[in-house]
Amino acid sequence: MRLDNRVRMPGLILKRASASRPSGEWSDDDYDVLADGVVVGRIMKAAAVPVGMSWMWTLAFGHHKGTPTHGYAATREAAMAAFAKSWRRESPS
């Protein structure tokens, strides 16, 4: 399955780091999470993770108060869902 540089989550956009941060070299499995054009977190395939949980997600500093700030998932889609769940807890309804 070919991905473009953006994948949508409810109220959030997943954008490849290479498109979001032009300086540096970024993996194809490294994404910034944007809300209203502002980077609010990151989802990436990481090396140092629990067995079977190769994707890590994290909320950016200042975008969490009493919610999980990071976690691990087996797939990118599962990491996206976990990120969105934590983000919804933080965001006003």
Descriptive account of the structure:
The protein has 93 residues and is of the alpha+beta class. It contains 2 helices and 6 strands; from the N terminus they run ββαββββα. The protein has helices spanning 17-20, 76-90, and strands spanning 6-9, 12-16, 30-35, 38-45, 55-59, 70-73. The mean pLDDT is 80.
Features:
2 helices; alpha+beta; six-stranded antiparallel sheet; 93 residues
Percent strand equals 25-35%
SS field, number of helical segments: 2
- When the domains are counted, the total is 1
- Largest sheet data: 6 strands, antiparallel
Radius of gyration: 13 Å
Topology of helices and strands:
Blueprint: E1 6-9, E2 12-16, H1 17-20, E3 30-35, E4 38-45, E5 55-59, E6 70-73, H2 76-90
Antiparallel strand pairs: 1-2, 2-3, 3-4, 4-5, 5-6
